[in-house]
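debug: dumping io for the single-chain case to check the tokenizer round-trip. Nothing else runs in this session.
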Amino acid sequence: MGLLTFSGGIHPYDGKDLSKDKEIRDYLPKGDCVYPVAQHIGAPAVPVVKKGDHVLVGQKIAEAGGFVSANIHSGISGIVKAIEPRMTVNGTKVNSIVIENDGLFEEIDFTQNIKPLEQMYREDVKDVIKEAGIVGMGGAGFPTHVKLSPKKEETIDTIIVNGAECEPYLTSDYRRMLEVPEKIVTGLQIVINLFDHVKGIIAIEDNKPKAIKVLTDLTKNIDNITVNAVKTKYPQGAERQLIFANTGRKIHSGMLPADAGCIVHNIDTIVAIYNAVIEGRPLYERIVTVTGDAVKDTANFRVRLGTNARELIDAVGGFNIEDPGKIISGGPMMGKAMFTLDVPVVKGSSALLCFKEDIVSEVEPSNCIRCGRCVEVCPGQVMPNKLATLASQGRIDEFLKYEGMECCECGCCSFVCPAKRHLTQTIAGTRKQILADRKK
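debug: decoded output
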């Protein structure tokens, strides 16, 4: 039997050897911490502290601004210095709570949040997850309590834990799987128990044999959890592709995973669920991989949210070159290029990737040579070359006719294009415009 996979995809250099053997280590921020109130999909959180207030680690500093929103908690102790717009990795200024770090890291009493699991109803567990401010930590930032409350709960039969970590260079999920597999299994069991007749799948790419073995051994006596080895191929970890590879069910842009009976969670999200339900700890930290050929060392840090990104570069010894060509928040395929390091780590920050050269900007795009490579690798099974042309000419009706909304913006087409056309960026811009118009 072949490995579980999907149609299309690419095999870029994965770069994981740089940091995959680096054990997770704690990094405590030295400077002020900045907490944007919008670091999730949905309504911005509303500050519940004011300038001059003293806060503790784990204290709620902003509460959800609606059902699709998320609480925010402090990762340090100190004084609220300001509530003002601050720069984020997206290149925009967002209203943020700035806390002056007192260096003491005094915590709230987390034991007051703990209740024996056997005494909790399903809604109690969801309330804990909501109160903890947990969101999808693979980058999307969708509030987890919303994902766990689908309209038709009875149709959910599969919970998939995304251990693929298909994005090149990232190794934070891999280290989680090796170092805290028990938390992953227990966190998955917590989610499974929120539904009737549900099975759990932990999907891991086959380039991570150690993780596959650890979690397979740990779940061998658990009837409703299986560990699936999926083919190493980008974007194996995308929701649509992961669901198809593991269940054979197809998802299109007008559907949610729940419409196919599935809910997908990132590894770090599942660990956050464990921390909240079992240990009473809200989401105030995450794992961040610092890697690339432009840093003196690499690391997988457990980082307090709000930490300045520049501190993490300093923590690995700084750059090994005077002026790195490109720094990316996240992975090279779907991450965001950074023009400044003076931005905070937020819930969706998976990595700081630093390159000596910016190979993308060095290449000038040319006309399409109609080779068809972009069509061959497209996991959405659309024609990126055609869609990019329609998008650049503003031909929206034709863009929709050719299924432009089925693009998942994975970047495969841009990666393989010999003409170096900016296919993904062009298509993504038009998709964003269409979605904004639909909201109006």
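debug: round-trip ok. The chain has 13 helices and 17 strands.
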